[in-house]
């Protein structure tokens, strides 16, 4: 297939060639993704990595696609032109969406992710009505939330890789652009900048509308709610377990609560999402100004 791949540009059938080549590469992606999927369903090969089994499977998928892009990008740019790389990525992203959907669905089912999110949401909306019901233990969420942030981080790294590739951040283009800019600095610089901006805009639209982008946003939206619940319940436990010695002015509650808040904020930072970090910072500040302030004020009185 790779030999015939070079013929299509000579026939002025660039898109046809890229479409067929894309389908060929998608079969390769499907093959190694299926192998990784079967290993995931079987429980993985390393028991120590079971807590991040689904994040690791997604990582293998992204790394495999990135390797394909890295290997074949020089061929596409040589025979088809750099502006055509986005067409090939569009085909590869379609297969990436299919495989991502399979992995995320199994993750949600086996980790009971949506069930736990709905339970927390129900309790948060009607806390008084369900006050007598047994709550979800916050400790059960600790490992789960870490895996979600890891999944989102790996997806962000994959998207950044694609953006760099589509923007043409490679030595060949930099050398070519520098050579052209020496002879036609103003015209070439403007042309290159416009071409990069257009490619980036189309790629951003592709990724935002992809199943990968949507599923990651859905997971992250539920993560923020669950992280807030984890922080709130953990703080309540820290207040309830407060230990003081005699007339001492020190309290174990202070260290425990600030440790919890720091842990939640750091975990949100590891998600590589600005919106997620801002949301958790707001939640942390709100918790310190309400629950923590009340508990601290009672101790002072």
TrEMBL record:
COG4 transport protein middle alpha-helical bundle domain residues: 1-301
One GO process term, biological-process aspect: retrograde vesicle-mediated transport, Golgi to endoplasmic reticulum
Protein name according to UniProt: Conserved oligomeric Golgi complex subunit 4
One Pfam short name: COG4_m
Lineage summary: Eukaryota, Metazoa, Ecdysozoa, Nematoda, Chromadorea
Domain of life of the source: Eukaryota
InterPro entries per record: COG4, COG4_M
One GO CC term, this protein: Golgi transport complex
Organism: Plectus sambesii
